[in-house]
Amino acid sequence: ENPDRVQFNLKFDGDQSPSVLEEALNKIIYQDLPKVQYDRWLGYQLGDLLIYYDNYTEITEVPMKFRVLNLTWTDDLLDRNSASFQYHASLFCKD
Fold first, then answer.
1. 40: helix, coil or strand?
2. From CA 38, how far away is CA 83, in angstroms rounded?
3. Are 10 and 24 in contact (CB under 8 A)?
4. What are the residue boundaries of the SEA domain, all occurrences included (predicted)?
5. Which helix (H) or strand (E) holds 20?
6. Mind giving me the DSSP string for 41-87?
7. Other C-beta atoms within 10 Å of 43: how many?
8. What is the pTM of this model?
C-alpha cells in the first residue's frame, strides 16, 4: 500500500567524493526539509517529489453506514445524453 519506489542515479560535476556528496544530499533531504503529510503518508517534499518517510498514523477512522436519499433525482438522469445528466456529470468531474 506504500507509494511506488523510484531509484535515481545522480551525477555531479567536479571532484567531490561520492560519500561526501551522498552525506550532503541525505542531510538536505532528511534534516533540512520539513516533513509533510500527503494522504496517509509522511514524507519530505523535494520539488514535485515526496520522498517517503513513514505512514501517517495520527488519524481516526469512523466506519459509518447510512442511506442517502437523492431528492433531486429525475428520470432524464438515466439518459447519458440528456442535458441534465451532462450538467451533473460535468460538476461531478470538476470536483
1. coil
2. 37
3. no
4. 58-95
5. helix 18-27
6. EEEEEETTEEEEEEE---------------TT--GGGG-TTSHHHHH
7. 19
8. 0.47
Look up cell 538536505; give the residue: 28
pLDDT in tens, 32-88: 888 999 888 899 888 888 888 888 888 888 888 877 677 778 888 889 999 988 988
- Cell numbers for 43, please give them: 514524507
Q: Which amino acid is at 93?
A: C
Cell numbers for 19: 560519500
| Closest to 3 in 3D by CA, of 47, 49, 35, 46 | 49
* Strand-pair category, 41-46 with 49-55: antiparallel
